[in-house]
Design brief:
Blueprint (H helix, E strand, L loop, with lengths): L9 E3 L4 E2 L7 E6 L6 E3 L15 E4 L3 E10 L10 E7 L5 E6 L14 E11 L5 E9 L4
Parallel strand pairs: 1-10
Antiparallel strand pairs: 2-3, 3-4, 3-5, 6-7, 6-9, 7-8, 9-10
């Protein structure tokens, strides 16, 4: 899969988000061929075994577990608050920093260890008029 997998007019906000024409958006990791450790983002060496690759791109699960979160009450001008940021652990051993959506920004509405799933949304338009697509995590309905 390549960068060209993004449909014309849509661009991922981060290089590790894939927007395939024929499947669900997903994150990708880089897997060490020597030990199997998986990382988010480009790697030149493995921090677990020292392997130097080449690293293979692997699709990451769209579901994970909320490891930690914080409710943000103060942000840049124009950014609505409060909102929830978190770190989600994926089954591949990757932790993802993200915004958590579709949840009330109250401690009693969020719990550590809750199952979450990835979703995407258009966060802005770039100067060329493309939709810039961001990823978010949200609670798994009914879980
Ligand atoms: Zn390794």
């Amino acid at each position: 899969m390549t960068e060209a997998s993004a449909a014309p007019g849509r661009r991922p906000i981060v290089p590790f988000l894939r927007l395939p024409d024929d499947g669900e958006p997903h994150l990708v990791g880089q897997r060490c061929p020597a030990c199997g450790a998986t990382y988010l983002g480009h790697r030149i060496a493995c921090s677990k075994c020292g392997g130097r690759g080449p690293f293979a791109e692997v699709p990451l699960s769209r579901r994970g577990t909320l490891w930690v979160y914080s409710i943000v009450h103060q942000s840049f001008p124009g950014v609505p608050v409060p909102y929830v940021v978190g770190v989600v652990d994926l089954p591949e051993g990757v932790s993802v920093r993200c915004n958590l959506i579709d949840v009330e920004p109250r401690p009693d509405a969020i719990r550590f260890g809750m199952p979450v799933e990835m979703t995407t949304g258009v966060s802005q338009q770039d100067k060329q008029g493309n939709d810039v697509v961001a990823f978010y995590f949200r609670p798994v309905p009914g879980a």
